[in-house]
TrEMBL record, chains A, B:
This is LacI family DNA-binding transcriptional regulator. PANTHER family: LACI-RELATED TRANSCRIPTIONAL REPRESSOR, RIBOSE OPERON REPRESSOR. GO terms for molecular function: DNA-binding transcription factor activity; transcription cis-regulatory region binding. Keywords: DNA-binding, Repressor, Transcription, Transcription regulation. The keyword Repressor applies. It holds the Pfam family Peripla_BP_1. CDD domains: HTH_LacI (cd01392), PBP1_Qymf-like (cd06291). It comes from the Bacteria. It comes from Lactobacillus helsingborgensis. The keyword Zinc does not apply.
């Protein structure tokens, strides 16, 4: 399709391009008749001022790249939606990139975003070994991820969340508590949850039961790993899951194998996205302040775009959502 | 942040801008030494070829605007993710716009996308009274929505899906079947599901029970409406819900009020997104072929961008997912 420019509008309205430009920028004297003629031509030709040309000239695109594993995962989906909303309120638009936990796809997106002159990037992926973020001149904010020098990290207070969840299980009488956690070899603020778990086990003289289920695994592999573990460890009477999906997979397996939740096994998740609780109001979980995380991340990114220095924010407050699984 | 151009690269490498341009376009003779020097300067300055300038020159941005109500709704989230993946495979990028069921936000996005010279738009919103799509010169594909002349609609075979769901409830002995449907005043292919419901009720001499719950309502309003209806109509023994959220809300209400699902009331949903079934494997539902819808919509849009004519596709095959709620 041929793109329409001011030349075509001028021709249609039978005026000069300078006149069209004056109407567009509301500059200089233009008679009502001429203005109407130009605007009618714009409507007829579906002409819209070219923001791309403006971006190129201003060296500012008002475009932000957002790289996440998936806009389907309820926690990330809600974050992405909140970020997109906040960006749109500030006149920015969002190029969404789902890495699908594929490191090469993530690297390709990073190059694509740079070639398209985005003003900054918000990243929430969990891939190991992706370089290109460290020491970048491009403003970058990472959510739930430490990407090294010059990037700013935003996360909830993971230690407090872990403590809140595990203490609840202890208070309800659990003696064999399982911590289903993410990949311990990736530098994630979420690792603090497991530190809280380990500290509370030690303090209460309770045995440690830890199962690593990396975030980047497929749902099928996560399901199988949890089921195998629970089959081999029937003594488990409390589960602190790394996210609500892991909690749901555990609950479903238990209920299919004649264990009652919460009577026989108590389960608590993490994240508490609105969507999850709408479909699964029974699930007890630690709610992350998703709206706040999105807001702080977006603000810090825009500040960085505007040349300000920014620091990490790792203590946004979590809360307990009481369902019926603990 | 100052954007780096080939001028800065040339200066850093101590060569002419013409030389940098020859390296970039791999044109003309360049000694290995010069090439290495230029590439080192690019790396050092984090210079990336400016795809924006290329887009402006070629009048083709390889950018597609995608407007949906929400990237959180599981069905739409999966569609968006599949579309984004398919676009990225074809060298396109996606500007994601969540209308949040706000008609003004949708109109503003449409203008923003046009100003940013997107090559085409995929739209899956449910707002009434949004003009600007009809007779557009810009290639537009609508999913589950009829937007008028010149736009192409893609949807599953909604009539077959409705028939499959309602026939299952009849086969399992339901006598008082409720159809929870969307807004009948919006022109949606999904309206065919209710036509299937009405035809089957007539054919089997069963009473009609229809509850309208517009898609654009808040979750809280949907919940309240369903609960009020079920409270006033305790005779309902089968529910065909317009989507899996409506089905989940009904199931949760019934179970909280001592009705067993499926023994007392059978419930079947619609959509069957992967995410929904991962968290709620018990839910019986009609699965839409989400991957196929995304593929057909993306293909048709790219064809239209390339100047080809396209026709509607309204019969992508649905399938039955047997959970434990019917």
């Amino acid at each position: 399709m041929k793109k329409i420019g001011i030349r075509e509008v001028a021709e249609e309205a039978q005026v000069s391009t300078a006149t069209v430009s004056r109407v567009l920028n509301n500059r200089g004297y233009i008679s009502k008749e001429t203005r109407d003629k130009v605007q009618a031509a714009m409507r007829k030709l579906e002409y819209y001022p070219n923001d791309l040309a403006r971006a190129l000239y201003q060296k500012r695109t008002y475009t932000v790249g957002v790289i996440f594993p998936s806009n389907v995962h309820p926690f990330q989906a809600e974050l992405i939606q909140d970020i997109e909303y906040l960006l749109s309120q500030k006149g920015y638009k969002m190029l969404l990139c789902n890495s699908l936990n594929n490191p090469q796809k993530e690297i390709d997106y990073l190059t694509m975003l740079r070639k398209n002159q985005v003003d900054g990037i918000i990243v929430g992926t969990h891939n190991k070994y992706v370089s290109g973020y460290q020491n970048s001149k491009l403003p970058i904010v990472a959510i739930d991820r430490d990407l090294g020098e010059n990037t700013t990290t935003v996360a909830c207070d993971n230690y407090a969340g872990g403590k809140m969840a595990v203490q609840l299980l202890i208070d309800r009488g659990c003696k064999q508590i399982l911590d289903i956690r993410g990949d311990s070899s990736v530098k994630l603020p979420a690792n603090d949850r497991s530190i809280a778990y380990l500290n509370l086990m030690k303090k209460n003289n309770l045995p440690k039961n830890v199962l690593e289920v990396p975030f980047v695994w497929s749902a099928a592999k996560k399901k199988e790993t949890i089921e195998n573990y629970l089959q081999k460890h029937p003594q488990i009477d409390g589960i602190f899951a790394g996210d609500d999906l892991l909690a749901s997979l555990a609950i479903f397996y238990l209920e299919m194998h004649d264990k009652r939740v919460p009577e026989d096994v108590k389960v608590i998740g993490f994240d508490g996205a609105k969507q999850t609780l709408l479909y699964n109001p029974r699930l007890t979980t630690i709610r992350q302040p998703i709206g706040q995380i999105a807001q702080v991340a977006t603000e810090k990114l825009i500040n960085k775009i505007n040349g300000k220095k920014e620091t990490d924010c790792l203590d946004l407050p979590v809360s307990l959502y009481i369902g019926r699984t603990v």
